[in-house]
Design brief:
It contains 25 helices and 24 strands. The strands form 5 sheets. The protein has a 7-stranded parallel beta sheet with strand order 3-2-4-1-5-6-7, sandwiched between helices. A 7-stranded mixed beta sheet has the order 11-19-18-17-14-12-13, sandwiched between helices. A 4-stranded mixed beta sheet has the order 8-9-10-22. Helix content is about 40%, strand content about 20%. The chain has 3 domains: about 5-230, 3-Layer(aba) Sandwich (Rossmann fold), CATH 3.40.50; about 300-395 and about 405-530 and about 555-565, Aspartate Aminotransferase, domain 2 (3-Layer(aba) Sandwich), CATH 3.40.640.10; about 570-675, Aspartate Aminotransferase, domain 1. It is an alpha/beta fold. Helix 24 (about 620-630) packs across helix 25 (about 650-670). The protein binds pyridoxal-5'-phosphate. Pyridoxal-5'-phosphate binds near residues 349, 353, 382 and 506.
Length: about 675
């Protein structure tokens, strides 16, 4: 169980943060709480010394001053300026690692870290104190002055914290300048009301703040110490599990296995890591279902989310518009083949597929071809779980018993089943026979993901879509899985040189943050729906939350990050790193095949003779559970173990991901008789 982590930030420099930090630590220490307090960075400290602030905090808790500060700089400037002046740089990652380690140390129930100055004080060229505190997922206490101007400074700090998704514990006011009691109380009341935040106390001006015994007493008398006590207990996790077990039904989750397994309860995320209620960290090897692009809790995306939420969380897109929805559509189209000009928003990928199928059918009808009412899709395709999406992506084991809901489609074998030439010949035959009745071909470009990561060549994609076109069918490319960099290009169609009539996007559209999907069509298709009211060509389709402004605002920020943060190149470098490290699995007797396109990877397990495994062995699931014990999250598709990490995963993290999966495969092979290499 990790300690409760509280960070102390000021509304500015010299507001009394250190006295409050030391006072709180001293008061908690005297109540028997296992408290550890320290400053993250101190500037203006002579080499070899820890500085006066660290000395005070040390005296408050009986610790050595040198243990009460993590980094010191001689120059009395902001950490970034001081580090730059001294030819050094603040090592944010090292600071994060050290604080996290402290929260796990035995005996630590509350860790209090004091930031430097205010929240937006720079630590490096790209990171502020706020970024660091947010990465720590600390509860933040804001220390404010009592005098004139404090309401404005405190409100700005509270807003800056909330915009970044920081959890605020409250405000403590420090009367460093000795204002009259009435003004301090008035300002405290105003801050509490205006910022909707608890003011946990007003620390009076102290004659001698260095007297820690007295300081502890005054803090206990003036500040609500209960707000700083260790978190109740590990009950939080247990309560979540109990409620879940009693009331939740999880998607694609075997209910009997779920009932019996020890569930992972995620509380927060950071970069490529997920953190559970116990503070244990897990590498997100599947980008939270192939969606996360730039990492969790990304400051830019968080900011976009919070700032839109501060304006309006939702207003309907039916017969109205808004800035994030309209601008996102334009920015998306600017990155797509020029023929694709109109964006229709939904939330799930499946819903966007549903729209694509309806639009294709109706476009053919309104274009004078009502007889074109059939769809062609690839065997082993997956397009989501609503009824029409399942019809074009049906798989026998999943969809048994659903026939009354589904319609019949023409299915063509993909290259991995019959080889590329035969797959094309088969498609040609189907179109030659039924072409006059086909509304559209639906295909996942470059790789059929959910069926087990089956790639095909760009040439196949160009040919099969060409065959469809030559018979008057529309082409629907479903890039819900492949879009946003996963196959090495922003969109697989761009890389493959294909321009469909209808493109379906989802998952990574919002950077993996919020439910948002899109069906993008050509102007020619949009035009056939544009007719007088009496013709009833309105697309009678839409969801309450279609085009949600927060999701659109985050999606815009995510698209911008592709430009600003070298995201595609990072994804390509990650793909090469994965491909190199995956070699360690290629030789294993229990691995039938390793398939990869970009960062999308499928490791197919088999027995040493090269045959498929008995599904009842649940080998894929066993591997994912073994990987979880190694703090790595992957998910099986049957006996294919899937890796599909955020594009920004580092090389070291990628090595850890593949290494843990390789170890897990070996462990499972050793424990399952049918898998043991002969
Ligand atoms: C190619 C493809 N299409 C559609 C979907 C469905 O998306 P959603 O789960 O958001 O409905 C998926 C989901 O994995 C997919 O891979």
């Amino acid at each position: 169980m990790s300690a409760r982590l509280i960070a102390v930030a000021g509304t500015g420099t010299g507001v009394g943060k250190t006295v409050v930090t030391a006072g709180l630590a001293a008061a908690l220490h005297r109540r028997g709480v296992g408290v550890r307090a320290l400053k993250l960075v101190a500037t203006g400290v002579a080499p070899g010394d820890a500085g006066a602030d660290a000395a005070l905090i040390g005296r408050a808790t009986g610790a050595r001053a040198s243990d009460c500060v993590l980094e010191t700089y001689r120059t009395a400037r902001s950490p970034f300026a001081a580090a730059t002046a001294e030819g050094r740089s603040v090592d944010v990652e090292a600071l994060l690692a050290r604080v996290r380690a402290l929260t796990r140390e035995r005996g630590h129930e509350v860790v209090i870290v004091e930031g430097t100055g205010g929240l937006l004080v720079p630590l490096t060229a790209s990171a502020t104190v706020r970024d660091l505190l947010r990465s720590l997922d600390a509860e933040v206490l804001i220390v404010a002055r009592t005098d004139l101007g404090t309401v404005n400074h405190t409100a700005l700090s509270v807003e800056a914290a909330r915009n970044a998704g920081i959890r605020l514990l409250g405000v403590v006011m420090s009367d460093a300048s000795g204002v009259e009691a009435g003004l301090a109380a008035e300002n405290a009341g105003q801050i509490a009301a205006q910022c909707d935040i608890p003011v946990l106390g007003v620390l009076p001006r102290l004659a001698d703040p260095e007297d820690v015994e007295r300081l502890a007493g005054i803090v206990a008398a003036t500040i609500d110490l209960a707000a700083f006590m260790p978190s109740a207990s590990p009950v939080a996790g247990a309560t979540v599990v109990a409620s879940d077990r009693a009331h939740v039904w999880h998607p694609f989750t075997q209910t009997m296995e779920w009932r019996d397994e020890d569930p992972l309860v995620i509380r927060s995320g950071e970069g490529c890591w997920l953190v559970d209620v116990n503070g244990d960290r897990y590498l997100d090897g599947i980008a939270s279902l192939w969606a996360n692009v730039h990492g969790h809790a990304h400051p830019v995306l968080d900011r976009a989310l919070h700032s839109q939420a501060g304006r309006i969380a939702h207003s309907t897109f039916l017969g109205q518009t808004h800035e994030p929805g309209a601008l996102l559509a334009a920015e998306l189209c600017a990155r797509l083949p020029p023929e694709l000009t109109r964006v229709f928003y939904s939330e799930a990928g499946a819903a966007a597929v549903e729209v694509a199928l309806r639009v294709a059918l109706l476009a053919q009808r309104y274009g004078g071809h009502p007889e074109r009412n059939r769809f062609v899709s690839l065997a082993d395709g997956y397009h989501g779980d609503t009824a029409a999406a399942v019809s074009v992506g049906r798989s026998a084991p999943f969809h048994r018993g659903l026939d009354p809901l589904l319609f019949d489609v023409l299915r063509v074998p993909p290259p991995h089943l019959v080889g590329e030439a035969a797959a094309l010949a088969h498609a040609s035959d189907v179109f030659a026979r039924d072409g006059a009745h086909i509304a559209a071909l639906v295909v996942e470009p470059r790789i059929q993901g959910a069926a087990g990561m089956w790639p095909h060549s760009d040439a196949y994609l160009r040919h099969v879509t060409g065959i469809a076109r030559s018979h008057g069918a529309l082409v629907i490319c479903d890039e819900v899985a492949t879009g946003f960099g996963r196959t090495g290009d922003l969109f697989a169609i761009g890389g493959a040189g294909v321009s469909p009539d209808i493109l379906v996007l989802g998952k990574g559209l919002s950077g993996g943050y919020l439910p948002l999907s899109a069906t993008v069509v050509t102007e020619a298709i949009y035009d056939v729906f544009t007719a007088p009211y009496e013709e009833h060509r309105t697309l009678y389709y839409g969801h309450t939350y279609s085009g949600n402004p927060i999701a659109c605002a985050v999606a815009r920020a995510s698209l911008q990050l592709f430009d600003d943060a070298d995201t595609l190149d990072r994804g390509r470098r990650l793909a090469s790193r994965l491909s190199a490290t995956l070699q360690q699995l290629v030789g294993l007797a229990v691995v039938r095949e390793v398939r990869q396109r970009g960062v999308m990877v499928g490791i197919e397990l088999g027995n040493p003779a090269g045959d498929a495994l008995d599904p009842a062995l649940r080998a894929g699931r066993r591997v994912t559970l073994a990987a979880r014990r190694r703090h790595v999250i992957v998910r099986p598709l049957g006996d294919v173990v899937v890796l599909n990490p955020p594009l920004v995963m580092s090389e070291a993290e990628a090595d850890m991901l593949v290494g843990a999966v390789a170890e897990s495969v070996i462990e499972v092979a050793a424990s399952v008789q049918e898998l043991v290499p002969v």
